Amino acid sequence: MEQELKLQILDPSPATWEKICKFPLLALGKAPALKLHAIYYDSRDGALRRAKLAYRVRREGKEWVATLKAEGQSVGGLHQRPEWNVTVFSAAADLRVFTDPDAAALLAPFLDLALHAILETRFERLESRVDCADGSQIVVALDRGEILAGGLCEPILEVELELATGEPAAILEMGAELCAHLPLLPDGESKMFRGLRLAGLIPADAVALGDKAPPLRRHENAGKALSRLLIGQCQQSLTAARQHATGNSPETFHQLRKAVRSLRALLRFCRALDADKRLDGVRQELADWFHQQSIRRDHEVLATYWATLAAGTGTELAPLYTWLSAQAEATPAGLGHLAATILQFWALLLRAALPSDEDLQHYAEMHLRRQDHKLTAAGAAAQTPAELHALRIRIKNWRYVILALGDMWPSKDSKALLKSLSALQKISGAVHDADMAGQHLAGLATSRRHGLAFHAGMLVGYLHAREVRQRKKFSRHWKRLESIPRPWN
Fold it and tell me: What is the rounded CA–CA span in Å between residue 361 and residue 154?
């Protein structure tokens, strides 16, 4: 049963490769590189792929090894996948070599298929075994090479951590340590998945989705259910971090912040279950990262506003857009630190789920009502930009928690409530944007650069005029929110 964590190397430079090879935790020493050449097979209509089976023959040193992998299951958010390995005489495709009863039963319908090579991988591997403090043992594989498919080529540059014996949390803890010190990020895409995409056998924009979490059940233990939900949020945040590392755009950054915000909202919702405060460090680390990145997001939002205003008024886009973009790019993304924090949090939940003697329905509905009362009180008092910004954060947190718990009320429609919260979030965001623009652009008023001060003044004026309109809309939407039924009532 295979259980592993894959980490993508973000920096392809020889210096980084050397640094990773010598990193003490990996214990690679002077182990010789093993050259591997794998050929993946399927029928022309993808019969094995549709059956969630992967079949390859790989040359490992002087031997050929045939491998069959089947669809697995999620245990604590880590994928466990059945795997069978058989030494064979050549690279020729032959499903009959798998004589294990379980493997043979899976392959019985496919024995007469005409198989052909769909992709290849060629890479060198450095391998070691690491003994962990808790007695677990992890197989470390450092891979460098290429994927070949459809006449195209894509690099392989990754670290694999596979659990040999012991606790799955040990893999995550080791991954956290590596991400904190090396340019690595968790990546859920296997070599085969990447090869299928390269070959055009799956869509170019396909992403490797995590295992679908089982639905929430009202009468299950609140601590166990919410721990499972938090692990799912951890996986979504790590996926968003990897997508941002690849895309590095305002949109991918926005999606990453949304994922982390959702994780933080659910973590805050679970605070009453963390009586011994073992998750306080995680809360603080996530908050620190989020607030550090707010400056980047502020400048990206202002750049978007200016692009729209400049286009609508026929004004020159530069130099203000260039200045705002440069300010945004000056803030490091801190993805390694973020990934390390999330992996460590995930490991904590695997080591011990949140304790509770309540069922999920009782805990969730009691705390949602409390949040509702606090939100209502805050909304009645909010007048200043700072108060409206704090209210906006409350609205976001409440909305994200309701979305996460949606399975609990399958017979009741929460769309109206969520739509109203989303509208209020957007409107209060516009008020915050005007305040934020004044803070970030005030220093440009004395700039001697051509057009910069004038354009900054235009943008601030536009956003303040927009703020007045948004405040009127806020009052209307707030009254509507107060009258919308709650699904848990």
Answer: 48
Beta-sheet strands, E only, within 202-347: none
Q: How far apart are CA 73 and CA 211, in angstroms?
A: 8
Which helix or strand (DSSP H or E) is residue 481 part of?
helix 452-483
Mean pLDDT value across the chain: 91
C-alpha span between 252 and 245 (Å, rounded): 8
Segment holding 359, helix H or strand E: none
Helix axes 452-483, 320-329, angle to 10 degrees: 70
Per-residue pLDDT reduced to its tens digit, 26-50 = 999 887 899 999 999 999 999 999 9
Q: Where are the beta strands (DSSP E) in 315-413?
A: none
**How far is CA 484 from each of CA 389, 398, 420, 422, rounded to the nearest angstrom?**
23, 15, 9, 14
At 279 the three-state DSSP class reads coil
Token match 């609990």: residue?
A: 408
Beta carbons of 341 and 319 less than 8 angstroms apart = no
Which residue type is seen at 444? Answer: L
Judge whether 372 and 365 are in contact, CB under 8 Å.
no
C-alpha distances (whole Å) from 121 to each of 43, 55, 203, 411 are 18, 13, 20, 49
The pTM of the whole model exceeds 0.90 = yes
- Take residue 322 and report the two structure tokens written for it: 């260039």
Which helix (H) or strand (E) element contains residue 474? helix 452-483
As a whole number of angstroms, the distance between CA 347 and CA 170 comes to: 7
Burial of 207 (0-12, 13-18, 19+ CB in 10 A): middle
Q: How far is CA 96 from CA 14, 46, 283, in A?
A: 43, 18, 52
Least confident of 171-175, 207-211, 443-447: 207-211
According to the model, what pLDDT value does residue 213 have?
A: 66
Q: What is the pLDDT of residues 84-130, one digit of tens each?
A: 999 999 999 999 999 999 999 999 999 999 999 999 999 999 999 99
